[in-house]
Design a protein that fits this description.
Layout lengths: L12 E6 L3 E6 L4 E5 L4 H5 L2 H5 L1 E4 L4 E4 L4 E4 H5 L8 H17 L10
Antiparallel strand pairs: 1-2, 2-3, 4-5, 5-6
Length: about 110
């Protein structure tokens, strides 16, 4: 019996919007996918300015947030995959972030959840 593999082309991200509780990604096939922001703790703790500072990577196969060092793939979003970051890694990042924000808080709002 012969079987043929079905090749599925993953659409590319074209635009990104982060609200207070969702990550919305417009895709090249016309769909918009929305996932809970809670899936990505670094985005939850990011300021609105940090959330809006994103860029497409891999020709639209992913999204990168420089300020919070977060990368999210379109394929992961489509398959319902939340952040794979360990709690230990996230806690370390959060402590470093709080320390950095405290040092640089003069004249800037400190990001807190």
């Amino acid at each position: 019996m012969n079987t043929s593999a079905v090749e599925i082309e993953v659409p590319k991200a074209e635009n990104v919007k982060v609200t207070k509780d969702t990550l919305n990604v417009d895709l090249s096939d016309g769909r918009t996918i929305s996932v809970p922001l809670e899936w990505f703790p670094r985005l939850v703790y990011a300021t609105p300015e940090e959330r809006s500072n994103w860029r497409l990577i891999g020709r639209g196969h992913g999204i990168h947030w420089e300020d919070i060092d977060e990368d999210i793939s379109v394929e992961g979003l489509l398959t319902g995959k939340p952040s794979g970051e360990s709690q230990k890694s996230f806690k370390k990042w959060l402590i470093q972030r709080q320390s950095r924000l405290t040092r640089h808080s003069s004249g800037r709002a400190v990001a807190r959840r």
